[in-house]
Design brief:
It is built from 13 helices and 16 strands. It has about 475 residues and is of the alpha/beta class. The chain has a ten-stranded mixed beta sheet, with helices on both faces. A four-stranded antiparallel beta sheet has the order 11-12-13-16, covered by helices on one side. It has a two-stranded antiparallel ribbon with strand order 14-15.
Length: about 475
């Protein structure tokens, strides 16, 4: 049986390589562009949209695209907490999408920004935080020197299409560090979000070209409500969603240009991906994925995100990888590349630089990828990318329903899945349950999932095939 179904990832400390970096004389810079609700097929070269995305294509041509990159929960706050801390939702207890004025990410979990700042990095964040807007949990409290953007989702405002009275309790504030740029955002302000965020990120790179930096760019788009500046409105010929994606692609191009202009291209790692898949109930205001279901589910349409990493001279240009890895692996991998001291405590992520760089065929050093929705443990994906086990849970689907349009969502239906095993190599669409054909695989995965449930989800009913 593949080694990926043992349980050491949940009990062992992450082992890091020595503090040397791949550049003996200079630490690498890190740029992370993390989109919100983007579909796997929204950009070339992953999909074939009818609008152009030349800058993401340029990024992929200079780096590697990863077809099997996962997030552990296909919802905003949970996905961001996993990226920032290298821990699964079951451990850090950030589930779902946090509303304003509520605690989110416990400060006991160290963030990537805190680790790198302690190692002398300049740290800037430009976009949507969504990991807490109370004292001690804002970006400037969690290791970022600078922050421009919003603390929570851009639909948590008084113009919400379904529940404006509830969301109208809190204004959507656009912040410049600890000062409001706009205290109560309206549509004309959201139209400028992508531009403002991009300009701030480029300015940060320009000002810190002479020292190592982390530039985190979690764009609020294409999470609904969709907004775009006049320079891209109507440009795609594919409706508002296409316009938004073209502006995000422009943003990527501006960042690439700033690195090139400052002579930083060769020493900068760029990671481009999304927090989860498309919010399918919004129809023409949602992205596309070839996989089953979308945001808010543990099927691959929700938890598999398009991913590109570029690091010239370290990652072969124009590559395409089918190796499986997860957003929780980013922190330990980047910390090792920086030669920084790892955070104290147990991580779920592992240093997967050999996988990202393509330098080794060694298996992923972890075991399986936790899949949750809200506080419910729903599925596991083996890190060899072969098997995915769903345990019994309900899920939302748009199959049989009419998707929304114009920013108004359609109504999803609830369905139930029992114990189900999918061969993700031969059936990435999760269309054929093969649990009866591979009973021993299913048994071992259920046993591993049950041990994990006992530790992190003790209130959830026990898992058993008996």
């Amino acid at each position: 049986m593949v080694r990926s179904i043992c349980l050491s990832v949940f009990t062992g400390f992450v082992l890091f390589a020595s503090a040397s970096t791949l550049h003996a004389d200079q630490k690498p810079n890190f740029v992370i562009m993390f989109l919100d609700d983007s579909g796997w097929g929204d950009f070339h070269p992953f999909g074939n949209p009818k609008y152009p995305t030349p800058n993401v294509e340029k990024l992929a041509a200079g780096g590697c695209r990863y077809d099997n990159f996962y997030v552990p929960q296909a919802v905003c706050s949970a996905s961001r907490a996993a990226l920032m801390t290298g821990t699964f939702p079951g451990r850090n207890k950030v589930f779902g999408a946090h509303a304003p004025r509520r605690p989110a990410l416990d400060p006991m979990f160290t963030t990537l920004s805190e680790v790198l700042k302690a190692d002398g990095y300049a740290t800037g964040m430009f976009g949507k935080w969504h990991l807490g807007d109370v004292d001690g949990q804002r970006p400037l409290d969690r290791g970022f020197d600078e922050h421009h953007g919003i603390y929570y989702s851009n639909d948590m405002w008084r113009h919400h299409p379904e529940n404006p009275e509830f969301w109208g309790k809190w204004p959507l504030v656009y912040w410049e560090n600890d000062k409001p740029k706009v205290e109560d955002c309206a549509a004309e302000h959201q139209n400028q979000f992508t531009t403002w965020i991009t300009e701030a990120a480029v300015d940060f790179i320009n000002r810190h070209a002479d020292q190592p930096f982390l530039c985190y760019i979690p764009h609020p788009q294409p999470h609904v409500p969709l907004h775009v500046s006049n320079k891209f409105r109507g440009k795609s010929g594919q409706g508002l969603y296409g316009d938004v994606m073209m502006e995000i692609d422009w943003s990527m191009g501006q960042v690439i240009d700033s690195l090139e202009n400052n002579g930083l291209t060769d020493n900068t790692v760029i990671l481009f991906t999304s927090d989860n898949g498309p919010w399918l109930s919004y129809g023409d205001h949602a992205g596309v994925t070839p996989f089953r279901e979308g945001k808010g589910t543990s099927f691959d349409g929700g938890c598999r995100s398009a991913c590109v990493v570029r690091y010239p001279n370290q990652i072969k240009a124009g590559g395409r990888s089918t190796r499986t890895w997860c957003s929780v692996d980013v922190l330990p991998t980047f910390v090792r590349l920086a030669g920084a001291q790892p955070p104290q405590g147990t991580l779920d992520g592992r240093d997967v630089w050999p996988i990202i760089s393509g330098q080794s065929d060694e298996p992923h050093p972890g075991d399986f990828i936790e899949q949750t929705i809200g506080g419910e443990f729903q599925a596991v994906i083996t890190v060899d990318g072969k098997w995915k086990l769903h345990v019994p849970h309900k899920f939302r689907t748009m199959i049989g329903s009419t998707p929304g349009s114009g920013g108004i969502p359609g109504r999803a239906q609830q369905q139930q899945i029992g114990y189900a095993l999918f061969d993700m190599v031969n059936d990435p669409m999760e269309s054929t349950d093969v649990i009866k054909d591979h009973p021993e695989v299913a048994r071992k995965l259920v046993e591993a999932a049950e041990q994990h449930r006992q530790k992190w989800f003790p209130k959830q009913p026990a898992f058993s095939l008996n």
